[in-house]
Amino acid sequence: MLLWQGVQTRVVDARKSDDGPRLIPAPGDPVPPAGATVRGAIDDTRRSTLMRTHSGLHILCGTVFRDFGALVTGGNMQPGEARMDFNLPEVPPGFKQALEDAVNAEVAADRKIVARVLPREEALQIPTLVRTQDALPPLHEPEIRIIDIVGLDVQADGGTHVASTAQVGRVEVVKVESKGRQNRRVRIRLAPA
Ligand SMILES: [Zn+2]
């Protein structure tokens, strides 16, 4: 939210535009006049839950790549719930439970999660840098931010994360669905913090 002159403006979305990020206010909320000094504040519960969820997705895709060799084809998240699609034509028997066990073993291992910014050329040497099929970091960025789940997964990423896998908490693999011949959709849910 934005805080200004004793007033709060709830921000419900943000979009990119040519002249910078554009904040979308909640319908009906007052907006600050042009030139007003504002302070920004974050909903800590929502943000912290999203950080845990996002890190949980990285554990998931690192584990699926390591154990099943499958790349990511898409994904989405809400606080505490997420889905990720994988290019996995053959689903091995017992996949759902094996995956849940493997992900929670990584949570229990309490691996550090580290953000680093590397020169583009150096980052591109990391073989696993781009885990999402057909997605490359923006061409003209001289530096690339990476998220390293130490010992499990390194990838280019611009998001917010918790500092270690234990902070994600227990992850439930809710469902594995077929989405076409190649794609499998994995839905996860986090235990309450
Ligand atoms: Zn990410």
From TrEMBL:
Q: Which InterPro entries does this chain map to?
A: Alanyl-tRNA_Editing_Enzymes, Thr/Ala-tRNA-synth_IIc_edit, tRNA_SAD
Give the UniProt keywords, A-Z: Metal-binding, Zinc
User: Do the record's keywords include Zinc?
Assistant: yes
Q: Which residues form the Threonyl/alanyl tRNA synthetase SAD domain?
A: 144-187
Q: Which cofactor does it need?
A: Zn(2+)
**Family annotation (SMART domains):** tRNA_SAD (SM00863)
For this protein, the record's SUPFAM superfamilies field holds: ThrRS/AlaRS common domain (SSF55186)
Where do the coiled-coil regions begin and end? Answer: none
Q: Entry's Pfam families?
A: tRNA_SAD
Q: Which PANTHER family match?
A: ALANYL-TRNA EDITING PROTEIN (PTHR43462), ALANYL-TRNA EDITING PROTEIN AARSD1 (PTHR43462:SF1)
What is the name attached to this protein's record? Alanyl-tRNA editing protein
* Species for this entry: Paractinoplanes pyxinae
